[in-house]
Amino acid sequence: MTSSFKELVMGPAGSGKSTYCSTIVQHVQALNRTVRVVNLDPAAEHFNYPVMADIRELIQVDDVMEDDSLRFGPNGGLVFCMEYLANNFDWLEENLGHEEDDYILFDCPGQIELYTHLPVMRQLVEQLQQWEFRVCGVFLVDSQFMVESFKFISGVMAALSAMVSLEIPQINIMTKMDLLSPQDKKEIEKYLDPDMYCMMEDSSDSIRSKKFKKLTQAICGLIDDYSMVRFLPFDRTDEEGMNIVLQHIDFSIQYGEDLEVKEPKEVDEEPSNLNYDQIFQDGVTS
Prior knowledge:
286 residues
């Protein structure tokens, strides 16, 4: 039986999903691996990678919004497009094929409701699993907006929502590390391997309501006690760092299991003064 591997590249709008896909495609060429990309964003305008399948060939947000019988706005139009995809999975199956060791990235839309309370992404995962594809989630957050504790907690909750909804192995990644200033790189270290109880103390002064303070404490305690969310840094100028991200993803879906099984590699050196050793050791959540 052949094996096929799929990454669902998720995250809020602007988190760098398309950039991640194009960077990975370029990076793996040097590793003698082939990675192909499927665009699942019906509102995408342009991307810097070749696509093996594009949902816009099936349906586009602009067409839905211009339909006088539907009268959807941008968000409603996107949800309609994704539900249309769910009713036409035969189109996706025809474009995917079933090649041995096929490795495909799905560049997904950024609307968070698709991963929280709407069933369409869960339906996609279940369909891929029925086709005997091994699937993992890669959830991206923009490191530039995670340098404050309350914003970090919000990002953790978004990642956790996707994990709970989809029930697949998930790697959480902080993108755009190469765009941070040296000071912000140093500051972000504590968010890569977070102590949620310390963050709770950092946020306590900005929370005036006792009720919301107790809620924040409960959320931070839950995440910390069960080690539910950890992030890996993604710097597209750091080849070693990208290799480590790939190793964690490969390990989560057992890519190349016919080869010698390897645990995700740790970093011996610490670029940009980040304490990566423990970060990478704890980076996988499944």
